[in-house]
Design brief:
The protein contains five helices and six strands, in the order H-E-H-E-H-E-H-E-E-E-H. The protein is α/β, with parallel strands linked by helices and about 150 residues long. It has one domain: Glutaredoxin, CATH 3.40.30.
């Protein structure tokens, strides 16, 4: 009888974890897909990162984000709006869960993280880690654009 009660408890806990895992995976995918539907933000992967971010003739801003990051959706919205208004800027997003090696290379260990690239080189003095007001993000991006030209 005790064995049966333990078995039922283990089964219930496993079922609960499975539901939670599926929910979190679905939420992450929905956040990622909604962000990447923006025409002004390009999706980066390990395969296209160097070509898109480092070999691009335009100034580049990369948003490192993850579906499990609580402040990423709001920052992604701000970023998309700013990018839509600045055609002389290449805006890109990199899902941290694709591969952690590229975010690690650029010290993106706090999400969201924004990295700025001018003529193939990262401007490390402009790194943004964590959430900030939309006005500040816009100021930082516009200042970068002005200095990169």
């Amino acid at each position: 009888m005790v064995f049966r009660a333990i078995s039922i408890a283990v089964l219930a806990a496993s079922f609960s974890l499975c539901i939670k895992s599926n929910f979190m995976h679905s939420r992450k995918r929905a956040i990622s897909e909604a962000f990447l539907l923006s025409d002004s933000v390009h999706n980066l992967t390990p395969d296209n990162f160097n070509n898109s971010a480092l070999e691009n003739p335009l100034p580049v801003v990369v948003d490192f984000y993850a579906g499990w990051c609580p402040s990423c959706p709001q920052m992604n919205n701000y970023f998309s709006e700013i990018c839509a208004e600045n055609s002389n800027l290449y805006c890109a997003a990199y899902d941290f869960d694709n591969d952690e090696a590229i975010p690690a290379r650029y010290g993106a260990d706090v999400l969201p993280a924004f990295r700025f690239f001018c003529k193939g080189e990262e401007d490390e003095s402009r790194r943004i880690d964590g959430a900030l007001p939309e006005e500040q993000l816009e100021r930082d991006i516009l200042d970068f654009l002005e200095k990169c030209d």
